[in-house]
Amino acid sequence: MRNSPALPLAAVVSIFFLIAGLSAAPPSSPQKNVSPDPPTRLPRAAVAAMETINPERIRAHVRFLAHDLLEGRGTGQRGGDLAAEYIGTQFALYGLKPAGDNGTYMQKLPMVGVTPTPDTRFWLVPEQGSAMELRPLEDYVAYDQAQQPESDIDAEVVFVGYGIEAPEYNWDDYKGTDVKGKVLLMLVNEPPSDDDNFFKGKALTYYGRWTYKYEEAARRGAVGAILIHKTDMASYGWEVVRNSNSGEKAYLKLKGQPKLSVAAWIQLGVAQKLAAESGMDLEKVMADARSRNFRPITLPFKLKAQMVSKIRPFESNNVIAMLPGSDPKLKNEAVIYTAHYDHLGIRPDMPGDNIYNGADDNATGCGILLEIARAYSQAAKKPRRSIIFASVTAEEQGLLGSEYLGKHPPIPAGKITLDLNYDDVKPLGVPEEVEVSGAERTTFYPVVQATAKEFRLEIRPDARPEAGHYYRSDHFSLARVGIPSFSINQGMKFKGHDEVWGLEQDRDYTAKHYHQPSDEYHPNMDFTGDATMARFGFALGWEAASLPHMIGWEQGDEFEAPRVKSQPRTE
Questions:
Q1: Per-residue b/e over 399-437, b at no fewer than 16 CB within 10 Å?
Q2: Which of 47, 206, 334, 400: CA 20 to 30 A from 36?
């Protein structure tokens, strides 16, 4: 969709309330029966409520949330705030209890927007020879996570391999090297392996995520960290890095924790030139980094950077509602559903289509969450535990909304038995598979397996385990505080199509639409599968809310310790 003159706020708000009311009404099109058999373990009232879930209601939410009027739902931007108000209005229409701040649906997050200005300069300076000045967005992207208007960096560059210290895998890229005040150059991802006991084999762990690498560098006192982009290792192209790291970037307001003055990515070609001028072959250095014997390498280069940023304090909101449970004791515990509503916003300085509408990512997840919330609210009988619905902000900025929610939940984290998350559920038709990556790590997995069987859905392993999806969506933030959590999504097989077709759709989306303005709503989208995923999640949530015991992590899981810590002590 092309950029167009902005409508006055009053007009936007008027249209917003009109569509809010329309999308809450029953659709005129006939309901599609998308679950072959209702789960036999659910009470009649739950089945009746679940059967009202309708793909056309999900469509209505997606159509509005992905509309140009919402300007890409950017964090701290007008469109993002309108999306939050829309979702809160839907919760109110359903009669759900506000679970945000001060009796409202809104949980305010203190945030800071950081925008690099044209005065920012970035040089790689050798001990001898000419400096390389890098071009923003073309050669590099960088932000000042320390949230300072100006930061001057003049520091040695140290290559630290994958930048990982993982004692459980007997892996340490740092080997005791003092990197305080240095700039760390590192690889994305983690050491490759087919051994499930070594960094979980082909599946990416949190150690491979860029967020971990920045966090670890900051903990060690580094002034900066630079990630080398390589498409197969990152699982996405440079366009995704560029689009996700241009314009304003949002951060939670600092409260004393260490942060980097330079958090950057560079193009592979820049890294190759840097290695060559350091007398090294980048491919060999990358191969050496796969060994436990790797030791950090101080390069004959410094990073000289002038980070000049526009700093904008603001507030954004998680939108939270609750359906109180029916059991006098268990209603103090809860199941939580999550989906992020933010996307990348609008880029006024970009020619042509400059609105990142985020239809698949993640208007779909919001539409599903809202339809599940509506169905629960209409159930003649309520589940035993309470149900929390949280549509969170700033996921695209690094899971910030869910991070804040995990640290400030509406009830203690130890009393939340399960989080079910929805993110990027593509409207592709009738699914024959479901992906629930991470569910197998919880004690709830047998229920997941049984429910999938009743829905006639095969459980598909993560189609791209190397992409580390478990650590890239909001359920991860809740897992970090101990809450058993996973996302629900379709697999790759759809009715009338083979697996190859599904994989092609996934590859095409990642290459052409993911984090790009072309992720838009189209009338020919088929939301049957989104409704199936909504019903499946509704059934799982009701089951979890009815169990006599709390759900936990499997013994030895990385999130077991925070779960145990969060549980109340019994004498």
A1: bbbbbbbbeebbeebbbbbbbbbbbbbbbbbbbbbbbbb
A2: 334
